[in-house]
Amino acid sequence: MADEKLTQIYIMGKAYDVPVGVTIMDAMEYAGYRFIRGAGCRSGFCGACGTVYRREGEYRLEFVLACQEMVEEGMHLTQLPFTPAPRSDYTLSELDPSENVLLQHYPEVARCVSCNTCTKACPQEIEVMDYVQAALRGDLERVAELSFDCISCGLCAMRCPADIKHYHVAQMARRLHSVSDSPIPEHLKTRMGELESGAFRVELDELVSMDLDGLKAKYAKRVIEKEEVAT
Amino acid sequence: MTQPGFEGLQDGYPDYMRASIAEVEATRARRLQEGHQAPLDATGRAKLLEEWHPDYKADRKREISVGPSKGDRMPHEVADLLEAYPTVDPKSVDLSSPDLDVSVLILGGGGAASVAALFAVEEGIAPKDILMVTKLRHGDCNSVMAQGGIQAADRDNDSPSIHYLDVLGGGHYTNKPELVRALVEDGPRMIDWHEKLGVLYDKLGDGTYLEAHGGGTSRMRMHSAKDYTGLEIMRVIRDEVRNVGIPIIEFAPAVDLLLDEAGHAAGALLFNLETDESVVVRARAVVLATGGFGRLHIQGFPTTNHYGATADGLIMAYRAGARLIDMDSVQYHPTGVAYPAAILGQLATEKLRNQGAEPVNSEGEPFVFPLEPRDVESAAIIKECYGEEKGVETPSGIRGVWLDTPMIDEIHGPGTLKSRLAAMWMMWHRHGIDITVDPALVFPTLHYQNGGVEIHADAATGIPGLFAGGEVAGGVHGKNRLMGNSLLDYNVFGRRAGISAARWAKAHEPRNLSLKHVMTYAEELKSAGVKTDRVAPMILPDYRREAVLARRLDALR
Amino acid sequence: MGTLTYFPGCSLKDNAKRFEDAAFFVMEQLGSPLLELEKWTCCGTVYSLTSDDLMHQIAPVRNFVRAQQAGSDEIVALCAMCYNTLARTSQRINADEEERTKINAFMNKEPDYEGSVRVRHLLQVLRDNVGWATLTDKAVRSLEGLKVAAYYGCTLVRPDEVGIDDMEHPVVMADALEAVGAEPVTFPFEAECCGTYQIVDEPHLALEQSGRILRSAVRAGAHAIVTACPLCQHNLEQAVGALSEGGVEGIKNIQVVYFTELLAAALGADEGNLTPAVRDLLAACVPAEGGV
């Protein structure tokens, strides 16, 4: 480690020398922090490590995931490991997609002034404000489409001047959109019926009790489905 | 949102790597024309594995010296934890008046735990009589970051029997037949359940699922939600757990199971990570859904796993008398990130390959069928880097091979990668690399616990009242899991564990909670000559560096 | 008098301190001392009087940025209120580089607005780009015999800078309807306010306004009053309901429709896609030569 290049960052106001070229999460551990809160999947999917920082000499705040963002000289950072955003309970099958249930459950959505602060706080580059506006109009499909990459890190809800709970609204919209606009494919229903009637029982009984040589032979004779790609 | 420190890099890559990338570009047109080389036959696979797969390094494993699976071989890192003394001294805990009393206690905060909870409710246990406890948050788990897809045989040209064969062959025929049967038979019904919950699977214009191949599959039965499949399923199921109102305590991992006087599972001892308090939970039935062991960094590999994947459940169950199975087998995902070093080992989904990205070496030449089962694919990549010496060396010393990601849009049309592999695009984009333009560098990374606590088809373990599902359980995948069967596993066996636990809970009442089994186990360790200051469960890995740890003071009393 | 609760304000603590000091002394002498309000804050005059209301321009400008990104240098609006808001902002911000720079700086990470997006209303497009002759040409159903009251409301024609026509005597909508054979009637309330969003909090005010407009249209003999704004449409519909209940002569039969609905009917829209109101109106028309 003798020739390791170090750079100075500020973790909750305290200066630490950390290696260049590592993520904020790795840098904090290098500095001596052992995460209890603020670390989850460590791969950018769970939203546990929402982090706020500013650069040296700048006043604007930046919003990132500690496990994905690299450290920068003079970074002043803190984490926001929890967002106290209330959730509205619901029974999916009882929701009426013809009404704007999103507004019923989250009336504060109507307070959106389209300031775009939420979009600028999103570490997944989601157009958050746009999906809130779609929620305002009851456009479930557009909410689902735009919010899909959301990992519920909570940074948007923390920044919103109208105290909207973006990711809870989006979660509800996606589920409702799925059950009302994306029907269960027929082939799945067919397969369910076949399973119920025991269509595969005999085949599986046979396989379960087959000897090793028999299985190996069958495996070797498998026909691999070819992918058809439309050109 | 690209990041600092890119001086001297050309679109994210150092100049010297650009030469190799040029070779990949030069061979691309030819490779798109000629298609893939043939997959290996059984003999070819066996040879490759024996010579190059990390599992075959005999000196990296040892036989466990105590317990129900004494004599079984497993990685040192796992054996070290099984041959360790209890983290919490059982004598220091008062079990006489439990803090919490529930019907079904579920250990875990991921997919299997959540599915078990929902089905326990369906089986008739009131939500308030269920308790989920987890080490981190609900949703901080491996389930949430699975990317490529979930297998289920729901199309006309496919059947559970064909799926069965794929699973068994991929697992080297060591899987428990009854478990494989349960896995494949329940596939379609779990997809159906997801549909009713509102999971947004990718569908084609005609409303049917967009289904793809995985390594070792003979039918295209991988259902996906972009490359956020794990996230999409997990967040829907988590949302439903919240709607139903099932209580969950976060940041309170279990450190030992409780048994009662009849030797039945009777609850757990929890440790509140934030207040250091013990919490004694009495339960009529216990579900073990504690996930995998990636943070043990077996053989020093980086891992795809979440922060808390430290095999805690495995250890607790073993101490209580559960048998383990297939612990000698570790899954390395063939394509972990090899560059940049900042995100080393993070998962790059198999879906990249099933959408057309071909692995090629430093000279731009293919060297393996892109969708071999994972152990074979990993071995091939390791061989190419360290045997053939045709890997690309990164500035940090890691070697890797190229995954020719620009092929995806060439095959399926512009925009395909960004829409179907949004997470992958974003992951490298944050580091200045555009994988629609340049290939990505990959190398195997520690990924999945193929084995685990042995279960039956109803998710029962050898301990009465203890049920297990998901990655912690073993026997489903044999010596090697196929892509898409882990998401399926946690749904199928999470459901079975929840139902079985509910039924058990209705018929049993624990009497006289005890941690005696932990003390007995410690005695066994002593008798076997295990002298160590190691303790288990680990709870969390420690990434603080030596220089910091050497100066630690215990000053805050 | 006892003590008086005194509000200082910012200046009185700074460059006007002597003003305050003297006041304290005077009121002390007069037996009614000033007691400073605890925890007073700025009265807000600077914020409320500032002409810099750039925050209000963000939402419209963001749409211009989106248009820019989509490669368009013009937006066409249908709702009169949206037209009005967007047009006023575009004129102001397109012309003022300094304000534009400030807004771009405030919006920060969003693409800069270059200042070249224009806003027009559909009626302007029909008049200036399509032309009435073309409209007549393309009509397959004649609206001959249909008397229409072209109602402009406020925001389509005011203020002058964005008005699509003369605010006292606009003709553009009437011309459009005439081009497809309808007979516009003259009615003096054609550009009076419908009561706008007062319909929410003070509905009686809006109903009064809209009621006058409706009665004027009825007196002029109109079969339909034609709108270009969802809010005008809503208020007039509400007024029809209110006045019908009140038994006002002739109100029950007058239809309230959007101008595009009548144009669509004239240009051959499928009967099944026409609302009952429009179909009723078509029945009142004289069939064209040869019939359709």
Break the fold down into its secondary structure elements and pairings.
The complex is a heterotrimer of chains A (231), B (557) and C (292).
Chain A: E1 6-11, E2 14-19, H1 24-31, E3 50-54, E4 62-65, E5 76-79, H2 101-105, H3 117-120, H4 128-137, H5 140-147, H6 155-159, H7 166-181, H8 186-196, H9 201-208, H10 212-220
Parallel strand pairs in A: 1-5
Antiparallel strand pairs in A: 1-2, 3-4, 3-5
Helix pairs in contact in A: 4-5, 4-7, 5-7
Chain B: E1 9-10, E2 13-14, H1 15-34, H2 42-52, E3 61-63, E4 73-75, H3 76-82, E5 85-86, E6 100-107, H4 111-122, E7 130-133, E8 150-151, H5 160-170, H6 177-197, E9 211-212, E10 222-223, H7 229-244, E11 248-249, E12 254-259, E13 265-271, E14 278-288, H8 312-319, E15 324-325, E16 330-337, H9 351-354, E17 358-360, H10 374-386, E18 392-393, E19 399-404, H11 407-412, H12 416-420, H13 422-429, E20 440-449, E21 452-454, E22 466-468, E23 473-474, H14 485-507, H15 516-527, E24 535-536, H16 546-549
Parallel strand pairs in B: 5-24, 6-7, 6-14, 7-11, 14-22, 21-23
Antiparallel strand pairs in B: 1-2, 3-4, 8-10, 9-10, 12-13, 13-14, 15-21, 16-20, 17-19, 18-19, 19-20
Helix pairs in contact in B: 2-10, 4-7, 4-14, 5-6, 6-14
Chain C: E1 4-6, H1 17-29, E2 34-36, H2 45-49, H3 54-69, E3 74-77, H4 80-95, H5 97-107, E4 118-121, H6 122-130, H7 132-138, E5 147-150, H8 172-179, E6 183-184, H9 198-201, H10 203-219, E7 224-227, H11 230-245, E8 255-258, H12 259-266, H13 276-283
Parallel strand pairs in C: 1-2, 3-4, 5-6, 5-7, 7-8
